[in-house]
Design brief:
Blueprint lengths: L23 E8 L3 H12 L4 E4 L13 E3 H9 L3 H7 L1 E2 L2 E6 L2 E7 L11 E3 L2 H13 L4 E4 L3 E8 L2 E8 L2 E12 L6 H5 L5 E15 L8 E5 L8 E6 L4 E7 L6 H4 L2 H12 L6 E14 L4 E2 L2 E3 L5 E2 L7 H20 L7 H27 L4 H13 L4 H4 L40 E6 L2 E5 H4 L4 E6 L8 H10 L6 E7 L9 E4 L4 H6 L6 E4 L5 E5 L4 H11 L6
Helix pairs in contact: 1-4, 1-8, 2-8, 8-9
């Protein structure tokens, strides 16, 4: 097959740990150097934690695999220092088209929202993401990666876990206070611990084919139901970097996966789809089966599961890697506070509460998409085909089409860390939602920032809206100065319509008024923002006791 990408090979190195007579202790170990494991490790190192990553391989993914990255996942990766290269290399797209029997029945446009740094979606082969993340890990102190280190046994303990690791030089043992498991859908660690991941396997198979071609096809998402070149089934076409295109072909449950991914079977399907005159090279092919499942609980003592190891969805809708990166975004700040003794261990349970809820939402959407794409009965197929036929003329039918509801961020409305609104707001940035971005100008922590989310790093922030005169109330200023010195420090950021030149607190200029508009803010409005950029509480007027209670609740230190 023709290849546009050559996989890097990372060097295995023997370490002093392998010669120790007793297990060598590391505070935090991550199993798996895919996007989720590396996301967890980078985030831990950025937040000042020492972390060791173990991976049984010594390269990045083979084949494009996950290719579509959502705005929220890119915002997380931007905080970790990885998104800029991704966006520069990736294909930014916004138009999707749905066809039925070769006829266009629906077109949607993910128009870029004004005043946001990050696009709605980009397409980029997973191996590029992983390569960029490896490069980022190499820049960080306190982060070590060990390639060709395969975990063969895990023994949980009340205060951590003990691991047996196999290498080209033989086995050795490690211990840790906390273990993050991100070793994929077929998690070996999950099997070692006798844990289950249950759900639904859909009796259908899809062929993935990555081809290299220079064609006039626009960088759009094309989904075709029952096309003339693949009767009774469906297909999907996406553009990636380097003139690589992702093609998906529904095959049916009776097809032999090994047979169907052979070039002599794949190439005729591609020619039928694209036409005989299109020149292309086959780069990679694979066959997969839809599965929607998750573990009943993501935490087991000091062992925590994330990404596909914890939950799995079908690829339509781009909910796999995107949701896994949101897992680690949710977890690491909580783990940091617990490991530093600043918050009780029950804070980690909120990771389960929040991310299991998000997983259920993803599984529900993924299941609905799969049921529409691959009807399981004649009645279901008639309904689907009638919907597609009506969509040619009626808007209500277009809203029923489900070729993969694209990944969105779960609003954690029932999180135990939220402080419910006591004041009236028209903004939908309710506690549990991700803070909206907006263009700003200012300095936070000595860094120049141009976007609101750039100002919200892995700390608790209090975003306080002020007028042109800034914050003049001395009682509030004293309260904020005191909050900066607490065991869980709060970082106040003032935001107003003009430069404030405050000599104590960081400040931002709301250059276009979008931050205030999106927060339904007026002078005195305050938003308490978690380290993962989720809203924890908001008020029309700040009260010291209310702020203290909300911060305690957001770190699981309340008595409720």
């Amino acid at each position: 097959m023709f290849l546009t990408y050559t996989n890097p090979v990372y060097e295995y190195r023997k370490t002093a740990d392998q010669s120790a007579a007793q297990p060598v202790h590391h505070p935090l170990i991550v199993v798996g150097a895919g996007p989720i494991g590396m996301g967890a490790a980078i985030d831990a190192a950025v937040q000042g934690l020492d972390v060791l990553v173990l991976d049984d391989n010594n390269t990045v993914s083979v084949g494009s695999r996950a290719v579509c990255y959502s705005k929220r996942a890119l915002e997380v990766l931007d905080r970790l220092g990885c998104a800029e290269r991704m966006i520069d290399k990736g294909v930014t797209w916004q138009v999707g088209k749905v066809f039925f029997q070769d006829e266009l029945v629906h077109r949607f446009d993910l128009l870029p929202r004004p005043g946001h740094k990050i696009p709605a979606f980009i397409n980029l082969q997973q191996y590029y993401l992983e390569e960029y993340m490896v490069d980022r890990m190499r820049q960080l102190d306190g982060l070590e990666v060990r390639w060709k280190n395969r975990v063969t046994a895990v023994v949980p303990r009340d205060d951590g876990a003990e691991l047996t690791v196999d290498t080209p030089d033989g086995e050795y043992r490690l211990s840790c206070d906390w273990l993050i498991v991100a070793d994929g859908a077929n998690s070996d660690v999950r099997s070692m611990l006798g844990l289950q991941s249950s759900g639904k396997v859909f009796e259908d198979r899809f062929l993935i084919a990555d081809i290299v071609m220079k064609a006039d096809f626009p960088p759009e998402r094309w989904f075709n139901f029952d096309p003339s070149y693949h009767r009774g089934q469906s297909t999907l076409l996406h553009k990636q970097s380097d003139n690589v295109w992702r093609l998906d072909f529904q095959l049916g449950w009776d097809k032999d996966p090994e047979e169907e991914k052979k070039p002599e079977k794949v190439i005729p399907r591609v020619r039928a789809m694209l036409g005989e005159d299109v020149d292309f090279e086959l780069e990679w092919a694979s066959v997969y089966t839809f599965q929607c499942r998750r573990m009943p609980r993501f935490r087991h003592g000091r062992v925590i599961f994330a990404g596909d190891a914890a939950h799995q969805v079908s690829p339509f809708g781009a909910r796999g890697a995107n949701s896994g990166l949101q897992d680690t975004d949710n977890l690491i700040w909580k783990l940091r506070l617990v490991m530093q003794g600043r918050a009780p261990e029950r804070l980690i349970d909120s990771y389960c509460d929040e991310r299991e809820y998000a997983a259920d939402e993803n599984i529900l959407n993924s299941t609905r998409s799969t049921d529409f794409i691959t009807p399981k009965s004649k009645v279901s197929r008639h309904f689907r085909d009638a919907t597609l036929e009506l969509a040619k003329r009626f808007d209500f039918a277009r809203r029923l089409i489900n070729s993969g509801r694209l990944s969105d961020t779960a609003v954690l409305v029932d999180s135990p860390l939220n402080t419910p609104d006591g004041d009236a707001f028209s903004s939908d940035l309710v506690p549990g939602s991700v803070m909206d971005d907006a263009p700003v100008i200012g300095h936070v922590g000595g860094r120049a920032v141009h976007w609101l989310l750039e100002a919200l790093d892995a700390r608790f922030h209090l975003l306080l809206f002020v007028d042109e005169d800034g914050l003049k109330d001395e009682q509030t200023r004293e309260m904020l100065r005191s909050a900066q010195q607490q065991p869980i420090p709060l970082h106040p950021v003032l935001i107003g319509p003009r430069p404030l030149n405050d000599d104590v607190f960081d400040s931002l200029v709301d250059t276009e008024g979008l931050a205030a508009a999106r927060c339904d803010a007026r002078p005195g409005t305050a938003y308490l923002i978690r380290p993962d950029q989720h809203v924890a509480a908001r008020w029309r007027r700040l009260d010291p006791q209310a702020l203290s209670r909300a911060l305690a609740r957001a770190t699981a230190q309340n008595e409720e």
